[in-house]
Amino acid sequence: MTLFRPLVLLAALAACSPQTAQAIPSETRAVSAQDDRHPVSGLEVIPLRVTQDGEVHRFKVEVAANREEQARGLMFRRELGPDEGMIFPLSPPRLASFWMKNTVIPLDIIFIGKDHRIINIAANATPYTLDPRQSEGLALAVLELPGGRAAELGIGPGALVQW
């Protein structure tokens, strides 16, 4: 019995050794720790739902939370999946104006009111233009989706946006 205990102790110590931890690829460890971050922007990614006429559309959106992140937005990005986007929370709610400077891909710029309902949409905004796209009322947030996606899904003014 006394010989058995040291063997159990040695097995337990071997299981906790650094070599065992290295058996898991570092990429796997990094990905699981970074699940909620976008691989390109590094921004937090959260679920977002848009409900219109009883139909729910689900997206994974990056959160541009501060002034610097909001100023950069989706500039220079070459891809945006069909169910991806970026949300720009505005505090306090205000009239919002967005442009497409240095933005490579067309976007739907969706202005969301204080009641979480879509006020208006600047659909398929042309890349690189400096023309302002403005909210038609006080905006709690602005959501950017791939250009044409809102029309494709039947999303329009009055739809409820929850995040």
Mean pLDDT: 85
Distance between the termini: 60 Å
The total strand number stands at 9
Query: What is the CATH-assigned architecture?
Result: Sandwich
* Fourth-tier CATH superfamily name: Protein of unknown function DUF192
Instruction: Give the overall silhouette.
Output: globular
Considering DSSP H and I runs of 4 or more, what fraction of the residues is helical? 10-25%
Oligomer: single chain
In DSSP terms (H or I, runs of 4 or more residues), the helix count works out at: 5
Strand order of the largest sheet: 6-5-8-3-2-1-9
Determine and state the CATH class: Mainly Beta
Residue share in β-strands = 35-45%
Number of domains: 1
Give the H and E element order. Answer: HHHEEHEEEEEEHE
- Secondary structure class reads alpha+beta
Q: Report the C-alpha radius of gyration, rounded.
A: 23 Å
**Main beta sheet strand tally, sense and closure:** 7 strands, mixed
* Low-confidence residue ranges: 1-34
What name is given to the CATH topology?
Answer: Jelly Rolls
